Amino acid sequence: MGAIVFGIILLAAGVYHFVNPAFYDPFMPDWFPKPLANAAGGLAELIIGALLLIPAYRNLGLWLALALMVIFLPLHVIDLLRERPVIGSKLIATARLVIQFVLIGWLWWLAKGR
To answer: 90 FRET partner, CA 20 to 30 A, in 18, 60, 98, 113?
Structure first.
């Protein structure tokens, strides 16, 4: 059930990358090619989210979701290290980083159990 919920969340986030790409721009470091990174992130979330909803591909989707969360991890660290995090306060940026580690652990646990 958890993989399905996470798949739906990824699908929603992936769609939002294309509906409101400007939302994600501040989270990306200046050296990132923002339009390309935004489209790639959105597409990855859409594909992985769909894989998580298809039972035959759920295990692959879990491993890819885990990889995606690890890939996104430096962006959360960079935001936390800013004087004023884009996400809001240092407290919120810290909480988001902790949540990221929890997601990574949870996805690892789900993927290993399959």
So the answer is: 18
